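Summary for the steering committee. One of the milestones for this cycle was to obtain a three-dimensional model of the protein with flavin-adenine dinucleotide bound, which we needed before selecting residues for the alanine scan. The sequence and ligand used are listed below.
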Amino acid sequence: MRILISGAGIGGPALAYWLARYGHRPTVVELAPGPRAGGQAVDFRGPTHLTVLRRMGLLDELRAHRTGGTPMTFTDPRGRTRLRLPAEFAGGEVEIPRGDLVRLLHRHSAPGTEYLFGDTATALRQRPDGVLVSFRHAPERHFDLVIGADGLHSRVRALAFGPERRYVRHLGYYAATWPFPNRLGLPAGSTGINTPGRLAAAGADPRDPDRAGAFLLFASPELPLDRHDPARLKALLRERFADLPHPVPHLLATLDEVDDRDLYVDSISRADVPAWSDGRIALLGDAACGATIGGMGTGTALVAAYVLAAELARADGDHRTALTRYERTVRPYARRCQRGGDRTGPFLAPRTARGLWLRNTLLGRRPLLDRMLAMGEDIATLDLPEPARAPQG
Ligand SMILES: Cc1cc2nc3c(=O)[nH]c(=O)nc-3n(C[C@H](O)[C@H](O)[C@H](O)COP(=O)(O)OP(=O)(O)OC[C@H]3O[C@@H](n4cnc5c(N)ncnc54)[C@H](O)[C@@H]3O)c2cc1C
């Protein structure tokens, strides 16, 4: 089958890899001029994530790139430590910078995939035998299937299923992250100043102490935010965090030198799409069931890509059966993972002083922490379908 995938983030290249192994001809169209390497570290936990990575032949390479996890320290504005969380809390079993994963998946999938960077689909017309796709730059083309793996603000979803406001719910917080040169000599791990409804954190890259990453989070009702206007995004961050002490003024100053492509600012939101496919068009990853930060979106996108490709192989060309089985398997799993994302904002930056105190007190106790870690693994466990026939290659 000729299959168009929109989005070269995590789910898109993972799906392309599997489709090529099953003998299909995937094309990936990505809006950015190359793989978008921004973002913090992302993590994998539990046997399901690790099995998919192993079956993709990526686990060893991923382990070679891993950060070793990110211990988190929360302080008050006077620098007094209020809570420490161990590396495995945010880092799972394998944690890797998102950018490294994006590059790895691109490289791994490239031999069997046609990549169209710097382009996007502008219209999708379904016909009984396929989908006619118009692009901003490339000539119009016919595909057997179109998969939207273009993230929380999916273009394919907007074109085929309707406007974003129907499917994406704002969860009351915004998050921002960007890399900067570690001129302050910050230690590895993440150390953040908490005030009610805000967190300003930073830490060195554990593999390169000259590099560091910033992470800001703040509570806010939905703002009329243009995610493609870096100057406005930077102004918003400066305004929201102007009053916090060292090292926050330094972090904000590094915004002047950050490459706009490396700045990631988004609302903490959740996508819920009642049906993930319509005829020959389907959604994958954040486009279908995303949760920004904390909802295990990366692991879910990888698992969903594996299941979708396996079901297409099993159904032997019957895309309706394959898409129905894919959604039936992945939806309840994704929903469980998403729930973690619903609580990320209130967890990282409780809105009141009392909420902060309560979080610090409860999570300062090891038994509760261990229970939360075990729960994370249970949630991320799924009975994976076996491939219907041996993949090629
Ligand atoms: C730059 C960036 C940084 C991120 N940082 C974090 C982070 O720090 N922490 C975290 O938890 N999650 C982060 N995420 C989200 C995380 O990657 C996803 O939750 C998860 O990996 C699911 O992957 P996905 O492939 O569904 O979506 P994504 O990884 O979001 O990938 C979607 C891809 O689609 C592309 N795209 C968007 N619109 C179009 C279009 N119209 N046409 C073609 N392509 C399009 C995007 O450029 C992107 O490459 C980030 C996403 C991006 C794009």
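Key point for the committee: The pocket of flavin-adenine dinucleotide is lined by residues 6-12, 29-32, 36, 38-40, 98, 120, 149-151, 155, 177, 264, 285-286, 290, 292-293, 297-298, 301 (CB under 6 Å).
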